[in-house]
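User:
I study polymers; will you set down one protein's sequence and C-alpha coordinates?

Assistant:
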Amino acid sequence: MKLGNVLVPVADLDAAIAFYGLPVMFRDGDRFAALDGGGVTIALCGPDEQVTPGVAVSFKVGDVAAAAKEFTASGASVLSPPQAGPHEWRAVLRDPSGNVFVLYSPL
Protein backbone atom coordinates (compact mmCIF):
# COMPACT_ATOMS: atom_id res chain seq x y z
CA MET A 1 0.00 0.00 0.00
CA LYS A 2 1.20 3.49 -0.76
CA LEU A 3 -0.25 6.98 -0.77
CA GLY A 4 -1.68 7.44 -4.25
CA ASN A 5 -3.22 10.90 -4.10
CA VAL A 6 -5.23 13.39 -2.12
CA LEU A 7 -8.82 13.76 -3.35
CA VAL A 8 -10.20 17.29 -3.38
CA PRO A 9 -13.88 17.67 -4.35
CA VAL A 10 -14.48 20.82 -6.41
CA ALA A 11 -17.54 22.50 -7.91
CA ASP A 12 -15.78 23.71 -11.09
CA LEU A 13 -12.79 21.79 -12.43
CA ASP A 14 -11.51 24.61 -14.68
CA ALA A 15 -11.64 27.13 -11.84
CA ALA A 16 -9.93 24.73 -9.43
CA ILE A 17 -7.13 23.94 -11.90
CA ALA A 18 -6.54 27.67 -12.36
CA PHE A 19 -6.70 28.29 -8.60
CA TYR A 20 -4.16 25.63 -7.62
CA GLY A 21 -1.84 26.46 -10.54
CA LEU A 22 -0.13 23.06 -10.52
CA PRO A 23 0.80 21.19 -13.71
CA VAL A 24 -2.01 18.95 -15.01
CA MET A 25 -0.80 15.36 -15.39
CA PHE A 26 -4.12 13.88 -16.54
CA ARG A 27 -7.63 15.14 -17.14
CA ASP A 28 -10.92 13.36 -17.78
CA GLY A 29 -13.28 16.07 -19.03
CA ASP A 30 -15.15 17.75 -16.19
CA ARG A 31 -14.93 14.62 -13.99
CA PHE A 32 -11.36 14.56 -12.77
CA ALA A 33 -7.92 16.14 -13.04
CA ALA A 34 -4.65 14.88 -11.57
CA LEU A 35 -2.27 17.68 -10.63
CA ASP A 36 1.45 17.29 -9.97
CA GLY A 37 1.81 18.26 -6.32
CA GLY A 38 5.56 17.65 -6.26
CA GLY A 39 5.64 14.20 -4.71
CA VAL A 40 1.92 13.63 -4.21
CA THR A 41 -0.86 13.85 -6.76
CA ILE A 42 -3.68 16.29 -6.05
CA ALA A 43 -6.79 14.69 -7.52
CA LEU A 44 -9.47 17.28 -8.26
CA CYS A 45 -12.89 15.63 -8.46
CA GLY A 46 -15.69 17.41 -10.29
CA PRO A 47 -19.33 16.98 -9.22
CA ASP A 48 -19.81 13.72 -11.19
CA GLU A 49 -16.74 12.08 -9.65
CA GLN A 50 -17.03 13.05 -5.99
CA VAL A 51 -16.84 9.85 -3.96
CA THR A 52 -16.07 11.45 -0.59
CA PRO A 53 -17.83 14.19 1.36
CA GLY A 54 -14.62 16.23 1.62
CA VAL A 55 -10.86 16.06 1.19
CA ALA A 56 -9.55 12.50 1.62
CA VAL A 57 -6.35 10.56 1.12
CA SER A 58 -6.32 7.69 -1.35
CA PHE A 59 -4.15 4.62 -1.01
CA LYS A 60 -3.11 2.54 -4.00
CA VAL A 61 -3.37 -1.16 -3.17
CA GLY A 62 -3.01 -4.41 -5.09
CA ASP A 63 -6.45 -5.78 -4.15
CA VAL A 64 -9.17 -3.36 -3.06
CA ALA A 65 -11.49 -6.01 -1.60
CA ALA A 66 -8.73 -7.66 0.43
CA ALA A 67 -7.43 -4.31 1.73
CA ALA A 68 -10.96 -3.19 2.67
CA LYS A 69 -11.45 -6.45 4.57
CA GLU A 70 -8.18 -5.90 6.48
CA PHE A 71 -9.13 -2.33 7.37
CA THR A 72 -12.61 -3.30 8.55
CA ALA A 73 -11.07 -6.01 10.72
CA SER A 74 -9.00 -3.23 12.30
CA GLY A 75 -12.02 -1.02 13.02
CA ALA A 76 -12.75 0.87 9.79
CA SER A 77 -16.28 1.13 8.45
CA VAL A 78 -17.20 0.86 4.78
CA LEU A 79 -18.99 3.85 3.25
CA SER A 80 -18.87 2.49 -0.31
CA PRO A 81 -17.93 -1.15 -0.99
CA PRO A 82 -15.38 -2.09 -3.65
CA GLN A 83 -16.70 -1.19 -7.10
CA ALA A 84 -15.43 -0.23 -10.52
CA GLY A 85 -15.04 3.49 -11.19
CA PRO A 86 -14.17 5.05 -14.54
CA HIS A 87 -10.43 4.37 -14.13
CA GLU A 88 -10.03 2.12 -11.09
CA TRP A 89 -11.51 -0.26 -8.56
CA ARG A 90 -12.23 1.70 -5.39
CA ALA A 91 -13.77 1.54 -1.96
CA VAL A 92 -14.48 4.38 0.45
CA LEU A 93 -13.98 3.78 4.18
CA ARG A 94 -13.95 5.69 7.45
CA ASP A 95 -11.18 5.10 9.98
CA PRO A 96 -11.90 4.69 13.71
CA SER A 97 -11.29 8.45 14.21
CA GLY A 98 -13.94 9.34 11.63
CA ASN A 99 -11.63 10.26 8.73
CA VAL A 100 -12.69 9.21 5.24
CA PHE A 101 -10.15 7.51 2.97
CA VAL A 102 -10.20 5.70 -0.36
CA LEU A 103 -8.58 2.45 -1.45
CA TYR A 104 -8.01 2.04 -5.17
CA SER A 105 -6.35 -0.15 -7.76
CA PRO A 106 -6.15 0.55 -11.50
CA LEU A 107 -8.58 -1.38 -13.69
